[in-house]
Design brief:
Structural class: alpha+beta
Strand order of the largest sheet: 3-4-5-9-8-7-6
Largest sheet: 7 strands, antiparallel
Number of helices: 2
Radius of gyration: 19 Å
Order of helices and strands: HEEEEEEEEEH
CATH architecture of the largest domain: 3-Layer(aba) Sandwich
Shape: globular
CATH topology of the largest domain: Protein Transport Mog1p, Chain A
Length: 146
């Protein structure tokens, strides 16, 4: 009887390990050993050590505007999402403001910080583009926004 439970536990453990490795294999995420400076849609960012890009750059169609978005993850379930709105065309910084937003300044960028159940957000304007950084760990704003 004990051996049946041990066998069942072993099979379940193997399936869990296979599922986890399969998820990471599907993502093809390459995690960086060092912080990496990137230019995304003409805006400079720094991706912290231990993060890798999840998936591909995608089109963004939100807030009535178009742009590009990409997502970075690490092994600690932290996520960083970059959105650059490319057709900003004179829309003001106040377009990022919502009911629970507070004005903030991160690394010289004045913007609006707010949150929902999943992410902390910071929205600002740079190079005539709207920039929105979302993360599951607000301490990452200082590292990402340069």
């Amino acid at each position: 009887m004990k051996s049946k439970y041990l066998l069942l536990l072993g099979i379940v453990s193997i399936l869990i390990c296979f599922s986890i490795s399969h998820v990471f294999a599907d993502e093809n995420v390459v995690f960086s050993n060092d912080p990496t400076n990137i230019t995304f849609e003409s805006v400079n960012f720094s991706i912290p050590q231990g993060f890798g890009m999840k998936g591909e750059v995608k089109d963004y169609d939100g807030m009535g505007s178009e742009g590009k978005t990409c997502v970075y993850i690490n092994n600690d379930s932290c996520m960083i999402k970059l959105i650059v709105i490319t057709d900003w065309m004179g829309i003001s910084l106040d377009d990022f403001k919502n009911e629970n937003a507070t004005k903030d300044n991160i690394n010289g960028h004045e913007g609006w910080k707010y949150h929902d159940k999943k992410f902390e957000y910071f929205g600002y304007v740079e190079n005539n583009k709207g920039v929105l950084v979302a993360t599951t760990n607000s301490s990452k704003f200082q590292e990402v926004i340069i």
